[in-house]
Amino acid sequence: xxxxxxxxxxxxxxxxxxxxIAEPGLDALVAEGLARGGLAFTTDLRALAESDxxxxxxxxxxxxxxxxxxxxxxAAVDSLAPVLAPHCVVAVKSTVPVGTxxxxxxxxxxxxxxxxxxxREGHAAHDFLHPDRxxxxxxxxxxxxxxxxxxxxxTAPVVHTDPTSSELAKYASNAFLALKVSYVNVLAELCERLxxxxxxxxxxxxxxxxxxxAFLSPGPGWGGSCLPKDTRALLHTAAEAGxxxxxxxxxxxxxxxxxxxxxxxxxxAVTGSTEGSLQGSRLGLLGLAFKAGTDDVRDSPALAVAxxxxxxxxxxxxxxxxxxxxxxxxxxxxxxxxxxxxxxxAAGLVLLTEWPEFRELDWPHLADLTHHATxxxxxxLLDSAMLTRAGFTYFxxxx
Length: 399
Ligand code: UGA
Description:
The protein is α/β, with parallel strands linked by helices. The protein has 14 helices and 13 strands. The chain has two domains: 2-170, Rossmann fold; 173-399, NAD(P)-binding Rossmann-like Domain (Rossmann fold, 3-Layer(aba) Sandwich), CATH 3.40.50.
């Protein structure tokens, strides 16, 4: 198998076994492939000339007005045209708007098959080897079978469908996850008003297999490089098709509301009033990545909350065990590499990413370092009784 990329630095690193992203298990897989000789990396597209199947995995970020920006994708397709062998099938792994696979087939004059991925960041290697489903959307049955055959060693149901359904299934899955989290976040707000506990409400829901156990944890909002981008793109597709997808638009609005709600919670916790001013308040942020287990801060709810806190005048210091200065955009948060610096003289702490190691911090010591030992735990990660014993005034979500 040969991997081609236009980024020469990444390719040179990969040839030496240096994986440019933090994904548990991926280093070992790449090292094994390189050692066995079955895996190679290059910037030279001609290396694909003999390939039977080419997997297109080009990023499709959000473009203007929520549409997917297909410039990199289209450039990759164009550059493949003169290279591929006549029998080669193109499998589209990129998340692309409905119709893109069919267009790719026309541009390349050969069968193209939609074959979206459902890998979670931080679990990509595991999810690839243990998929819960494989979707193959192709109009040419033999091309679709050849793509499905790539996964022969894996046990998972295979959905054979047309490219349109396959492309839509990818967006539909991510948008549904977003919907679920927005639902539980609003429910957490309702719990606070009514005196209910979101942990018990969500636990009751989880036990219903029709609802499912996952994606029912309240937080500062859903983020990352996929859910925000894919909800925007699906809303755009629906609008273009003349379908009012209000339920999804509401989930997006609820997500923005969640960022604001966290800020108001912090204001109340730190100043003791809904009207209090955060001007000049030193706040320590615990966690900046969009979720635990990754170094990724793209579209991170932590940064969305931070931007609003800074707008309200707060002075922000942030610590994240996965994020270093190289991958951090800077801006309103001063990134530090020692958690005690986040606590030092802080008027309050805000936990934004659910890193399990935060549970093991020396909380009594951190309480001593703060100016006001107040903590808003937007992930309900910490044991409130333990934090109270450590000297903190603890605020969670939805309880
Ligand atoms: C998501 C999907 O889960 C993958 O199936 C998909 O393949 C991937 O996008 C993609 O399209 O490439 P990922 O971006 O890694 O994966 O992030 P998730 O694990 O889905 O988390 C998304 C956001 O929801 C995070 O900010 C997370 O903290 C938040 N979340 C998740 C909650 O706030 N509560 C929950 O209960 C679950």
